[in-house]
Amino acid sequence: xxxxxxxxxxxxxxxxxxxxxxxxxxxxxxxxxxxxxxxxxxxxxxxxxxxxxxxxxxxxx
Length: 61
Ligand SMILES: [Zn+2]
Description:
Radius of gyration: 13 Å
Shape: globular
Distance between the termini: 21 Å
Bound molecules: zinc ion
Strand order of the largest sheet: 2-1-3
Number of strands: 3
Helix content: under 10%
Strand content: 15-25%
Largest sheet: 3 strands, antiparallel
Structural class: mainly beta
């Protein structure tokens, strides 16, 4: 049992998700900032902000 609360520290929440207007790929804000330039894997650079229904995001693909 190991649960960590990431929202404990930091004033900015990172659970902002952007969706590519072209292919619809969801990219989180943290992933975008790690990239050298704001760009989707398809090459498109226009994103729309997506609000996740739940605050907690679970990586289970
Ligand atoms: Zn795309």
